[in-house]
Amino acid sequence: APAGDLERLKIAFTYGADAVYIGGEIFGMRSAAKNFTIEEMKEGVEFAHNLGKQVFVTINIIPRSEELEQLPPYLLQLQEIGVDAVIVSDAGVFSIVKKTIPNMEVHISTQASTSNSVAAKFWYEQGAQRVVTARELSFDEIRSIRDNVPEDMDIEAFVHGAMCMSYSGKCVISNYTTGRDANRGACAQPCRWKYNLVKENENGEYEEVINGIDSSFFFNSKDLCMIEYIPQLIECGITSFKIEGRMKTAYYVATTVRAYRMAIDAYYEDPENWKFNPVWLEELKKGSHRDYSTGFYFDRPSDKAHNYESASYIRNYDFVGIVRDYDAENDLYIVEQRNKMNVLDKVEVIGPYKETMFATIEEMYNEDGEPIESAPHARQIVKLKLDIKVDKDYMLRKPIVTINTI
């Protein structure tokens, strides 16, 4: 699962992730994410290892020569705090990793565009333990890689999240239009912008190339969602399912990890009789998302894999609070507000390894114990009386109500 900061790391593990991938303050592909200091990484690694879980650190930019002198001391720090693996895409970075910390597990990033078994085997022979395949592969192509690489090489693949319109991130539109380097963690996502595509005719006039659609978000890919196809993902030889989204919220991490955890666990409980539960997909849709597609898994996508009408996220629910503690003396839950909530609001409550619950906020108090009717302030700490029992790190959400006016 993705973890953009320490809170999201802990939420990912609490809600069922086996490993997280994070970025440090240098060499990562998400420069706009909060990212981790070495001290925060150390705390995150200790938290993970106490649960028997793992932390992988991204070193997957394509660096310039002058930057590489920073790499060996950084790698030694990662080794010292017990990071489980580093994720790299550049051959030079790979070489420095193997020379500096030869016992560190190395994973090959999707940025390396590994699309065939020869490339995967090459990385294995250099000492890589895992390859994150290019996102442009089908089930059959992944199975072909699995069948032609050593059994002890792991295959990881993205199963959920935003898709790059280019080949595993090999895009320079952001560089050209804004000067922000997509392959150095600063993509401006121009694929989400609206365009008009025209060509110059023989008279020097411009005419539209694309006709018949109302809008021109023609680079705008839908999000990947493979929760309906857990058996196929496992049976084609994927070792590790990867969720996109280090820039996403703690609520996104919780809902996405929780849904996939339930689907995967259901498969392993009874593989022969596994049946997709529509509730899992409904849970994913209760987080901020774009329309979903199956990407390249069923061969090359059709034009239905893009949304030409809008690049906006779909939001049907507000994440309104997260349970931080319990005041046993007064039977009140200490909650950190994330969106406005009110007394008598009916909310949904999600927790790890639990079905969705429904509750009413019966009473609300501020930190001084004074009764209040609403919590409108960002990250306000309040005490709630609910009509159900909940636990630490459970999340409260409520539907977004729209009022139509004439």
Helix content: 25-40%
Rounded mean pLDDT score: 92
- Element order: H for helix, E for strand: HEHEHEHEHEHEHEEEHEHHEEEEEEEEE
**What's the helix count?**
10
Q: Structural class per helix/strand content? A: alpha/beta
User: Count of DSSP E strands?
Assistant: 19
Radius of gyration: 23 Å
For the record, give the distance between the C-alpha atoms at the N and C termini, rounded to a whole number.
Answer: 44 Å
C-alpha geometry: globular
**Sheet with most strands:** 9 strands, mixed
- What percent of residues are in strands? 15-25%
In terms of per-residue confidence, which ranges show pLDDT below 50 for 5 or more consecutive residues? none
Your description of this structure?
The protein has 406 residues and is α/β, with parallel strands linked by helices. The chain contains 10 helices and 19 strands. The chain has helices at residues 6-14, 38-50, 71-81, 91-100, 117-126, 139-147, 173-178, 230-235, 250-269, 278-285; strands spanning 19-23, 54-59, 85-88, 105-108, 130-132, 154-161, 198-200, 206-208, 223-225, 240-243, 292-293, 317-327, 332-337, 341-342, 346-350, 357-365, 374-375, 381-386, 395-399. Strands 1, 2, 3, 4, 5, 6, 9, 10 and 11 form a 9-stranded mixed β-sheet that branches. It has a 6-stranded antiparallel beta barrel with strand order 12-13-18-16-15-19. Helix 1 (6-14) packs parallel to helix 9 (250-269) and helix 9 (250-269) packs antiparallel against helix 10 (278-285). The radius of gyration is 23 Å and the shape is globular. The two termini are 44 Å apart.
